[in-house]
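User: My instructor asked us to take a sequence, write out its structure as tokens, and then describe one feature of it. I'm not sure where to start. Here is the sequence I was given:
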Amino acid sequence: MRAFVYSLALAAGLALAACSMTASAELMTWPDLLERPRPAADAEIHYGDNQLQVVDLWLPKGDGPHPTVLMVHGGCWQTEIADRRIMNWIADDLRKRGIAVWNIDYRGVDRTGGGYPGTFLDAAAATDALRDHAARYHLDISRLVAVGHSAGGHLALWLAGRARLPADSALRQGTPLPIATVISLGGLPDLEEAARPPGSGCGTEVIAQLTGSGRPDVFVDTAVPRLAPLGVPQILINSAEDRIIPTSYAEDYARPMRAAGDKVEVRMIPASGHVELIVPETPAWAAAVEEIEKALHE
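Assistant: Let's start with the prediction itself. The structure tokens for your sequence are:
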């Protein structure tokens, strides 16, 4: 199981962060999630020729129109660490709650065509493909909520800011599908911050792979704060005892975004780690569901 590599690839980051953890904290590990029976999506939709250029659609019962969530997986932007299937359990949970899920995949930096600009263009194309399929599947995309976990939190926020990309950016392609609200689950919202040592459990080297080189400023179209204000509400749900993503990332991102005029809320979940953010029965996911339903129906 490719996603199981997540626990191995991040072992060094976990070990370092664990030194500062309280002994009483009993956090979930990746096998706690990944060794469960894996629910299946209702449809697989390809938006390109590569096997990773695919979306899983999760459809609730009934005729619709179904409120819809755009879901973006993490894995340090690396396909070998995780793909869209790591989100299956929370996608299934939303489906049971009457919410459709458009769960996208994309080429990671460790795949041919990934990195800059491929990873970004894949995420954008996968998102825009939702517009083409909404009518057929009775999807209501008028208040689309983007939910991203870990590195997917960065991509979800970036997708909401695509309309503000520089005119000469290689990433400025197509007509961006409007996103009404972004919910980042233990995300890495600011690439420039994640690139500074000591970085996160993902390491700093992967940021260079993602942003590319040979340009005067590699963050001008890849780092979300450079696109501020996004003009949409952003909710950052983080775990107080996350061993992979520094808890400081959330407020460090929120402050300048608020100063630019954006509405950014940070929710820190106690006694919770990185895995709990995408496990259906946890307080962390309950907080996410609360924010998702509020954003879809307000």
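For the description part of your assignment, you could build on this observation: The longest strand covers residues 139-149. Try explaining in your own words what that tells you about the chain.
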